[in-house]
Structures are given as C-alpha cells and as structure tokens.
Amino acid sequence: MEELIQMIHRMILESLGLENHYDSHTKSLVNSMRFLKYYKDSSDNESSIALSSHQDSTFISIVCQHNVEGLEVQTLDGDEWIHATPIANSFTVLAGEAFMAWTNGRIRAPIHQVKLTEPIEKRYAVVFSTTPSFANDMINAPEELVDAQNPLLFKPFKYYDYVNVKEDYGSLKAYCGA
C-alpha cells in the first residue's frame, strides 16, 4: 500500500510540475491504516447517514470499500451527492485538506459522507491515509504554486494544531484562509 501511496503522490506532484519537491514531501509524511465499521441508524427506515459530511484533514485517503455501497461525494457546487460505487479490486482515492492547502487549492478536498440504504445495515471499510509527521507538520504551499494569478489561499499552519481545533472552526478556510 505504501508503494501505491508514493505513486499517487508522485503523479500529483509531477502533474503540478513539482517533481523537485517529491523527496522532501514524501519523507515528511507518515502512513496510517484504520478499520471502520458504520451502522445504519435504526430510527430511519429508508436511509441513514452513518458518517456525516466532512472533508478529510489528511493529504490522501485511500478507501477500500469491500464492494459495499455507501460512500457519497458532494459535487463542487454542493447541489447533489454522487455515489462512489465500489468496483471490485479497486480503491477510492480522496484528497484531503492538507493536500488542498499544500497545492494552494489546485487539488480539492471533496466533501463526502457515508449513507446506508436498505438492505445494508452495516458497512466495513479500510482507510489508508497519509499525514505529515509530528516532527514536520508545517503545511506551506510551494512558492511555485503562488503567483499573481494564483494568490496564496491558505496561510502556513501546523497540521496537528489544525486537527485539534478543526471542529471549532468548521473549515480549513476559516482556520487559516488568506
């Protein structure tokens, strides 16, 4: 899985013309894995939000859905939810707020949720994530991504400081928007 994570980071950095940042960027990251179990709300007969809408704070989250429906991603305009239909032998990759800030908004962190519908009563998922290491958690967009046409969107911030107060602010922009 670590190889896949590194490949995704490399592809994104190359697409942004930031190949020279690859080594320093990936060396400052740590990987984690979480096993998640979502339950259907028994008070709702038709469907249930098992995980409310949010943006991941990570750089990248890779979700193994185990062929069970439920993950939904909100469109950019916020008008609708798109089902992230699981495909056998595949993963769903979501960018997080750390990557959105580091790329000065070129990569978007999608708002997503988990919604269970009949007959699904519970859902399991495995999520692999990359976050900054504790020793190097300053998020600062590379100077190559900031110019007159692309002004700085997020002031530099310490990742774990943000994670600790994320719910108080409601969004990364409210916390450190430029």
TrEMBL record:
Q: Which InterPro entries match?
A: IPNS-like_FE2OG_OXY, IPNS-like_sf, Iron_ascorbate_oxido_reductase, Oxoglu/Fe-dep_dioxygenase_dom
SUPFAM superfamilies on file: Clavaminate synthase-like
- Entry-linked Gene3D superfamilies: B-lactam Antibiotic, Isopenicillin N Synthase, Chain
Fe2OG dioxygenase domain segment(s): 29-132
The domain of life for this entry's organism is Eukaryota
Q: Which residues form the signal peptide?
A: none
Pfam families assigned: 2OG-FeII_Oxy
PANTHER family for this protein: 2-OXOGLUTARATE (2OG) AND FE(II)-DEPENDENT OXYGENASE SUPERFAMILY PROTEIN-RELATED
Protein name, entry field: Fe2OG dioxygenase domain-containing protein
What organism is this sequence from?
Platanthera zijinensis
